[in-house]
């Protein structure tokens, strides 16, 4: 056989294997989409809502950045929930000294509006209820008297206009309930559509080959059994340490809410959107690296020793949940002076 014949044979073989691996990749891609469709609902920006509810949203945005909502006028929602930083400031705050020192990680506020369960212990069941809680609990706004807050807002002339245009048919537009409602509307608009959403809707180029592979590892390890829904979590509470005891038992999770011993160490299955950017991980910030968090989950929730290679593949997949921050929407308004 002459050299050119060898070359021809090589070329045929090469093209054949290329075609084979391409069709295998295509198959894996389509399989992953079929799997995701079962567990996921894509996140979309609801442009009609943003347009129709402009006044309430605009008021909510002002309030979110308003330090005068706190007792000492020093702290606002954004002090902890930094929207430029995925809605968290990365650190965590002391909750209740009386029951031993422990911390709660500051969660993201993106894409949370539709969740059925709030807080790390899952003790709260709606966004509205959570917003009341944010004002009164000791580790968020620590407010004692809502009437003082209303008076404080009434003393700023420009707030009258903002409240009146947001709640045009009400005699007393500046009220505590309306503060809550405006914040609720602002938070409802905080969504970060991500590559995974484009992928689910049919765009095969949205995910890299490695991410598709990682998606299959996530599925093979049965992570979806807990991490489901539009936020890949946030739908239920589950025992942390179901297979092997969680190392830190200071915060007993849902047991704090309902004192039944079977609820000890039950926590909300963490929503995983933007997880790449929201370290530290877990209610107690036990891990600061995503691949390590994945390994811990394997060990404590699945009873599996996930290898570092597998954990890195899963992390690549989880990066497809990193969405775009809506910079215009979250822009800090000019401070209202009077
Ligand atoms: C001092 C820090 C701090 C401030 C200020 C603060 N928060 Fe929080 N927020 C937290 C922490 C910590 C949690 C988690 C609590 C837990 O897991 O028990 C949280 C939880 C939340 C949640 C629940 C998110 C979820 O997925 O469960 C919402 C919504 C929220 N805060 C909104 C607000 C709003 C609105 C304000 C302003 C009125 C505010 N927060 C002010 C620290 C803060
Ligand atoms: C039995 C239910 C269950 C299974 C299975 C499970 N998880 Fe979790 N996951 C949880 C709970 C509960 C939390 C929240 C724990 C906390 O707040 O301390 C969590 C938290 C996480 C976090 C931290 C997110 C954050 O922002 O703090 C990551 C990452 C994670 N899981 C990934 C995975 C991966 C990958 C798998 C598969 C190997 C998996 N999980 C399997 C229940 C589960």
Short description:
The chain is mainly alpha-helical and 338 residues long.
Can you list the ligands bound to this structure? Answer: heme C
Radius of gyration: 24 Å
User: Regions with pLDDT < 50 over 5+ consecutive residues?
Assistant: 94-98
Please bin the fraction of helical residues.
Answer: 40-55%
pLDDT averaged over residues? 91
Spatial order of the strands forming the largest sheet: 1-2
Reading off the top of the CATH hierarchy, the class of the largest domain is best stated as: Mainly Alpha
Name of the CATH homologous superfamily of the largest domain = Cytochrome c-like domain
User: How far apart lie the N and C ends?
Assistant: 91 Å
* CATH topology grouping of the largest domain: Cytochrome Bc1 Complex, Chain D, domain 2
Shape: globular
Going by CATH, the architecture of the largest domain would be Orthogonal Bundle
List keywords for this structure.
338 residues; mainly alpha; Cytochrome Bc1 Complex, Chain D, domain 2; two-stranded antiparallel ribbon; 12 helices; 4 strands; 42% helix; globular; binds heme C
Molecular structure report:
With 338 residues, this protein is mainly α. The chain folds into two domains: 136 residues, Cytochrome Bc1 Complex, Chain D, domain 2; 142 residues, Cytochrome c-like domain (Cytochrome Bc1 Complex, Chain D, domain 2). Helices cover 42% and strands 4% of the residues. The chain has a two-stranded antiparallel sheet with strand order 1-2. A two-stranded antiparallel sheet has the order 3-4. Strand 1 and strand 2 form a beta hairpin. Bound molecules: heme C (2 copies). One heme C binds next to helix 11.
């Amino acid at each position: 056989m002459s050299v050119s014949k060898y070359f021809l044979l090589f070329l045929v073989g090469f093209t054949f294997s290329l075609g084979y691996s391409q069709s295998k990749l295509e198959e894996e891609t389509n399989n992953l989409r079929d799997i995701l469709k079962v567990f996921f609902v894509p996140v979309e920006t609801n442009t009609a809502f943003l347009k129709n509810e402009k006044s309430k949203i605009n008021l909510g945005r002002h309030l979110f950045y308003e330090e005068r909502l706190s007792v000492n006028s020093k702290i606002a929602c954004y002090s902890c929930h930094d929207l430029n930083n995925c809605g968290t400031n990365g650190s965590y705050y002391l909750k209740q000294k009386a029951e031993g020192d422990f911390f709660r990680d500051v969660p993201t506020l993106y894409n949370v509006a539709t969740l059925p369960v709030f807080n790390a212990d899952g003790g709260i069941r709606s966004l509205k209820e959570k917003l009341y809680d944010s004002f009164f609990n000791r580790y968020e706004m620590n407010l004692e008297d809502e009437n003082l807050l209303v008076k404080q807002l009434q003393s700023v002339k420009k707030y009258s206009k903002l409240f009146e245009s947001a709640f045009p048919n009400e005699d007393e537009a500046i009220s505590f309930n309306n503060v809550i409602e405006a914040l609720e509307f602002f938070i409802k608009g905080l969504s970060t559509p991500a590559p995974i959403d484009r992928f689910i809707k049919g765009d095969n180029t949205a995910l890299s080959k490695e991410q598709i592979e990682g998606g299959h590892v996530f599925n093979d390890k049965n992570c979806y059994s807990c991490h489901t829904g539009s936020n890949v979590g946030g739908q239920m509470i589950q025992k942390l340490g179901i297979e092997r005891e969680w190392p830190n038992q200071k915060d007993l999770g849902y047991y704090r809410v309902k004192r039944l011993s079977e609820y000890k160490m039950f926590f909300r299955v963490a929503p995983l959107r933007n997880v790449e950017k929201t370290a530290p991980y877990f209610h107690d910030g036990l891990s600061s690296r995503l691949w390590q968090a994945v390994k811990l989950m394997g060990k404590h929730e699945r009873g599996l020793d996930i290898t570092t290679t597998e954990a890195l593949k899963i992390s690549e997949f989880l990066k497809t949940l990193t969405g775009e921050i809506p910079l215009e929407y979250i822009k800090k308004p000019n401070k209202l002076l009077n």
